[in-house]
Write a structure and sequence with these properties.
This protein has one domain. Helix content is 76%, strand content 0%. The protein has 15 helices and no strands.
């Protein structure tokens, strides 16, 4: 526990200094490095799998405190349509293309969830239900980080070239970029930036995060039907906790100071869990990156970006 939390603190510090490096990715990389260091690996590899799951599920529950139903409804019909259509289309197309490419069902499902919802957090949440291989989780996290990072600069630049308003570009960023932190970084590059642009982009992104629950259920059902040996509840308790946290956040009873602390704790827990996941990964299994996985990530990103752009242009 102490080691995992310490690594999470280091990951948070690194991501603060280098915003393009998300804390979950940094923690995962540290875990892989430790697991592949002779003389050290035997002390950490596979030593606390139950703790890793507990940290992950606690982080997912607290993630719900970032979402207020009132904020999502404030997007209006057009904003909600943009979010729903982008998420559903990205998830569905990624699944279809992944199968056509002959990739493992678990890897395809992780990529579909991560690219359509909220990056590494969605991948970690879905992984706990479909029991994917650690190397598939690591590959999916790496892909969603790289492609999301590219979009940080691409979306604001293209929004300017296409003549979109700052509001339209902000909504496009929130609806298409993978990680919450990446959306915030992109919003700072849109026009003059400012609180209005940041609020629009972040609210749209959190509306996508709110869809984590149904996507997780759909992913678990799909993988269960594909593999009869998989067991476990269709709707795990931590997902019900996530929904309960959304309800609590929506009541407005929690002061901003509590929400700020909860936000930091969420990042720490998820980062600690990703460190634990990284300790079970053999580095040589990740390289070279499969060309088909890169193609799938490219298509998934293009679908999310193009669908969101088309809807923003038509509806916003």
């Amino acid at each position: 526990m102490l080691l995992s939390v310490a690594v999470a603190g280091v990951a948070l510090a690194v991501s603060t200094a280098v915003p393009l490096l998300g804390p979950l990715l940094v923690a995962l990389v540290i875990g892989v490095a430790v697991a592949n260091t002779p003389g050290v690996s035997r002390h950490v590899v596979g030593t606390a799998p139950r703790l890793d799951k507990l940290l992950l599920r606690g982080g997912i529950v607290l993630l719900g405190l970032k979402i207020a139903v009132g904020d999502v409804l404030a997007l209006g019909v057009s904003g909600i349509v943009v979010v729903l259509a982008t998420v559903v289309t990205t998830y569905a197309v990624t699944q279809v293309v992944g199968r056509a490419l002959g990739l493992e069902r678990s890897l395809v499902t992780l990529v579909a969830a991560g690219f359509s919802i909220c990056g590494a957090a969605a991948i970690a949440a879905v992984e706990s239900s479909i029991r994917a291989r650690p190397k598939d989780v690591a590959l999916a996290v790496a892909l969603v980080t790289v492609f999301g990072t590219v979009m940080i600069g691409a979306v604001p630049a293209l929004g300017h070239v296409l003549g979109l308003t700052d509001e339209q570009t902000a909504i496009w960023a929130g609806a298409s970029i993978h990680e919450v932190a990446q959306v915030i970084a992109a919003a700072s590059l849109i026009g003059a930036g400012g609180a209005t642009v940041l609020a629009a982009a972040t609210t749209v992104k959190l509306a996508r995060v709110a869809l984590l629950a149904p996507v997780q259920v759909v992913s678990a059902r799909m993988c269960r039907s594909a593999d009869a040996t998989r067991r476990g509840p269709l709707v795990p308790l931590f997902l019900l906790g996530f929904l309960a946290a959304v309800v609590v956040r929506s009541t407005g009873v929690l002061p901003p100071s509590v929400l700020d602390v909860a936000g930091t704790l969420t990042t720490v827990l998820l980062s600690a869990a990703m460190f634990g996941l990284g300790t079970g990964i053999v580095a040589r299994h990740l390289w070279p990156v499969p060309a088909r996985a890169l193609l799938l990530a490219t298509i998934s990103t293009l679908v999310a970006a193009s669908v969101a752009l088309a809807l923003v242009t038509l509806l916003v």
